Every structure is written in C-alpha cells, then in structure tokens.
Amino acid sequence: MVGLGVDVYDMPAYTSANVQGTAVLLAEMARAGVTKLVLASSMVIYGEGSYTCVRHGSVRPGPRAKDALDAGVFEPPCPHCAQPLMPGTVDESVPADPRNVYADTKLAQEHLAASWARMTGGSVTALRYHNVYGPRMPRDTPYAGVAALFRSALLRGEAPKVFEDGQQRRDFVHVRDVARANVLALEQKAPFAAYNIASGRPRTIADLAKALSAACDGPPPVVTGDYRLGDVRHIVASPARAAADLGFTAEIAFEDGMAEFAAVNA
Ligand SMILES: [Zn+2]
Q: How far, in Å, from the CA of 62 to the mean position of ligand 1?
C-alpha cells in the first residue's frame, strides 16, 4: 500500500500488506531458491531531510508542531535554537526517521530484507524512490502521489489544490528512469545496499502544480494553506551513490516528463 494513508484505521491494512506481505514473500523466496531482491523502498524513511543551522551546523528537525502549522509557519525550526534552517540534500547514510505509518512499513521492509539476506546469503538492493510519476499512475484515489492528485483535479476541470504555501520541495523522477534503475540494481551483489533514486533536480510542489496546469490547459493552482500532519517539509536527495555504484542517472527532464504525463489519458 502506498501514500500517506487516510487515517489511523488504515494501520492494520498498511502493516498487513507491506510488513506481513513482505515477510511472506521473503520466506517463499527462500523456499524457491531465489537469491536476489530489488526492493521498492522509499525516501519517506528519512523523515525531514537534512538541514543546516548557522549556529548548530547539521541538524535533524523533529515533527512540526500543529500550532506552527495552524499559524502558517511551515518551515521546521532548528531543534536547538528555533532559528530558521537551510535545507540540504540527504544521502543514504542519514539515520531513518519515519513520520507516518507508510514510512514505518517501508523501513520495516528494509530491515526484514536485510535479515533475509543474512539468513540466506541472498542480496538486497533497496531503491529509495523519490516522487515517482508517469504513465499508469492511479487516478482519483487519496492514496496516489501528488502528481496524480493534481492531474485528476485538472481532468475534472478543477484547479490543483496546493497544500502549505507550495514551497515544499520534492524530487520528481520519471517511472521510465525508475524502471532502468531497477534493471541496473539486478546486477548488484552486495548483501544489502540502499540507493536514492532521484533526479537530483528538486522542484517545489507549486512548480509541479503550475507545470501540470499549463500542460493540461487548466485553471491555475490554488494555494490552500492546508497541511497533513504526517508530511515533511523538504525531502531532497543526493543521487551520487546510485550514480557511482549503479551507473544510474535520471535522464528524463521534469518539463518533458510532466508534459507527457499531462497528455497521457491512461
Ligand atoms: Zn540552531
């Protein structure tokens, strides 16, 4: 199960599909003599991305306070001095800090897969996908990614609704690039290795909404100031390790990929 989930009643369904489901898969792989797993992991395991404080250097902000979000203060402050922070890029060595049930289940998958590799001598390559988009994304479901939600709104003739102030940053990577990363990962032999699968060229959510509105010839986006408590502000990755070890670099430009995505009626 993907997406943030809708409410607390989703917890059993998420853990059953993503955690128990993975455990069943791994046991059956061992029974069948399968020794290689490419795991569709996620950048959500990092929680908030990396930030720098002018006084305290590299810091990891905690979850944002509801009072601050209600007041329209969306940037997470320094956990030590509450001053504004500079967002940076996360690499794969950053400790996990999952912030919602989906993220909890994705991290559990990595841990289960690593245990499976130790027990069986198999090899796991965990690809931490950033915001994947492209043809055949599910439509009209609250569990879809933000690109699919915006496109669904535009197809109904409605303006995309942008949460917070639209300045939150994500890395959008095209599904064909992601498919190529998976093929490259099949060649990896390490017992367990994790890679960010990202374009390395982050955009704001407002940029995404504007690009899709323009490509669909639809109404301009509306910035609502709404928020979801489990969301993080910026999550932007370094794609350097995937480039070095897998030979993977995303090739599809944001503008080209979004224009194609807007036009595809599937
Ligand atoms: Zn500070």
A: 13
Sheet containing strand 123-129, edge to edge, reads: 36-42, 123-129, 192-197
Pairing of strands 131-133, 86-87: unpaired
Distance 67 CA to ligand 1 centre (A): 20
Residue 144, classed as helix, strand or coil, is coil
CA 52 to centroid of ligand 1, rounded, Å: 8
The alpha carbon of 219 and the centre of ligand 1 are apart by a number of angstroms equal to 41
Reported as a single tens digit per residue, the pLDDT across 4-35 is: 667 899 999 999 999 999 999 999 999 999 99
Which amino acid appears at position 252 of this protein? I
Rounded to whole angstroms, what are the CA distances from 153 to 139, 221, 254, 261? 10, 10, 20, 14
Please identify every residue whose CB atom is under 5 Å from ligand 1, which is an ion. 53, 55-56, 78, 80-81
Interval between CA 59 and ligand 1 midpoint (Å): 8
Torsional class of 60: left (φ above 0), alpha (ψ -120 to 50), beta (otherwise)? beta
Among 20, 60, 23, residue whose Cα is nearest residue 233: 60
pLDDT digits (tens, 9 = 90+) for 28-78: 999 999 999 999 999 999 988 889 999 999 998 988 999 999 999 999 999
Question: Whose CA is closest to 47, among 100, 84, 91?
Answer: 100
Give the residue among 252, 257, 172, 263 at the shortest CA–CA distance from 215: 263
